[in-house]
Amino acid sequence: MKSFQKKSRHKIILQSRFVLFLLGFLIVVFSWSMVELAGKMQDTIKNRRIAENKALELQIEKENLLLDIANLNTSKGIEESIRDRFGLAKEGEEMIIIVEDKNLNENVENSEKKSFFPFLKNLFKNI
């Protein structure tokens, strides 16, 4: 009979409002922690993908730089690098340099400002 009374006393204590409130509070706290953990895991997965992409880009850049170094170890590669960097040419070669005429753009703008139809076109373009 005493063991039955002991069991019922434990049952009464465990089913008291205070203990149930405490257990409910702990469940809410742990649930909130799990939601925060899930959000942090998503951020971590996103950061991992970014880091993997960056590592891949760096690997490709490393390979390109190694190819450039190998190219610069040859006399043809050195010559090509100097020509590109300084705009030089060999003897007997001719270089064509294209220079944009700045006055041409100003003349076109001035002629468009003077006529009536471009004024209308620009008027409706801005609306």
Count of DSSP H/I helices: 5
Choose one word for the global shape.
Answer: elongated
The major β-sheet equals: none
Beta-strand portion reads under 5%
Order of helices and strands: HHHHH
- Compute the number of strand runs: 0
Determine the structural class based on helices, strands and strand pairing.
Answer: mainly alpha
> Which residues form runs of ≥5 with pLDDT under 50?
none
Span between N and C termini?
94 Å
Count of domains:
1
What level of helicity do the residues show? over 70%
Please describe what this structure looks like:
- The protein is an all-alpha fold.
- 83% of the residues lie in helices and 0% in strands.
- It has one domain.
- It has helices at 2-14, 17-72, 75-86, 102-114, 116-126.
- Helix 2 (17-72) crosses helix 3 (75-86).
- 0% of the residues are buried.
Helix and strand layout, with pairings?
Elements: H1 2-14, H2 17-72, H3 75-86, H4 102-114, H5 116-126
Please tag this protein with its features.
127 residues, mainly alpha
Give me a quick take on this structure.
By secondary structure, the chain is mostly helical. It has 5 helices and no strands.
